[in-house]
Prior knowledge:
Blueprint: E1 2-6, H1 20-34, E2 38-44, E3 53-57, H2 68-89, E4 96-99, H3 104-108, E5 117-121, H4 127-134, E6 141-145, H5 148-154, E7 162-163, E8 185-188, H6 197-207, E9 211-214, H7 220-227, E10 235-237, H8 243-251, E11 255-258, H9 268-275, E12 280-283, H10 288-291, E13 297-300, H11 305-315, H12 320-330, H13 333-350, H14 370-378
Parallel strand pairs: 1-2, 1-4, 2-3, 4-5, 5-6, 6-7, 8-9, 8-11, 9-10, 11-12, 12-13
Amino acid sequence: MRIGIIAHLKHPIAEPFAGGLEMHTHLLARSLRDRGHAVTVFASSRSEPELGLEAICTETAITSVGTTEASDIAFFREHHAYLSLMTGLRNRDFDIIHNNALHYLPLTMADSLPMPMVTTLHTPPFCWLESGLRLCKAPHHALVAVSQSVAAQWSHVAPADAVILNGIDLRKFAFRAQVHSAPYLVWYGRIVPEKGLHLAIEAARLIGLPLRIAGPVLDEDYYRTVIAPTLGADIIHVGHLAHRELAQLVAGASAFLCTPLWDEPYGLVVAEALACGVPVAAFARGAIPEILDSSCGVLAAPGDVGSLAEAGRAALALDRRACRARAEQMCDANRMVESYEALYQQQIDLGRPVPRDGRAAMHLVPPSSPDSLRTMLHG
């Protein structure tokens, strides 16, 4: 298949990843190329060229305290980039377009394309993307949610045609049976207020184990005023690590503290920790209860530090092999990619016209409900 993947533009699709969406897009593109598909990734300029990159814009994230003018410039740069892309795609020969962006224009203009499009919803609803989805009238457009939680949150706008859980490369997060000789807890992700790192620090001190922190500082004020004053010999920020170093840090941990203060759409960090054999103590928000079960994680009351500390102590006793087994069952990238391949082929077949001689073209019957499509994709 000739596949075009539309990425979001705030950060490069390259290591070290700014977050889960960048990692997901990178993994999907690389896996599809490894399977023999011709893949082009429409992304920002510092993304990895080996993915089949066509750069459409420089990165638009405002990493420092942005002015209104800077925000306006970023908005119009993204708008122009996606408008130019969608206009140009009308004359390209892709079999399918996979929209992995968070911008309204690819959705709004999907009906102008000669090929079908798949859009994956990676976030809870927000006004711009919701508006784009409401305006999407493309006849051969399929909507995918990355969790049942996300599908439910978007159901008032449009039903998901499929739920395809995100996956990770299990080889890159290798299982480790034994914890580090000097036990520690781990927290990693984007260092922003909604990820709740400050609560993980409080819980770690209640548990009585050191905490190692990894991830990019994307909110300098939050880091300087809330996080930095709490750092010390027992609470250490090791920086923004590349994939290999991050996997080693996570694998050595006794438990992973996951502290979202919003409804996490999926939670790739949870999948990565489980793959390493690391039990998870997490606030029960968003899709996290879909990934964890009692064999590999303990859920805590959202926002409650005492509950998280109690969950963390209980997680220390869980079987690391059971954690890895759960990752293999729920979070394998091969399952995710195979599901997308099946969906791509279905949409391509549905978009083929019936031949003029009256013979029926080969195609799949449109599912009558999202459940029937999930059955078709997953067996």
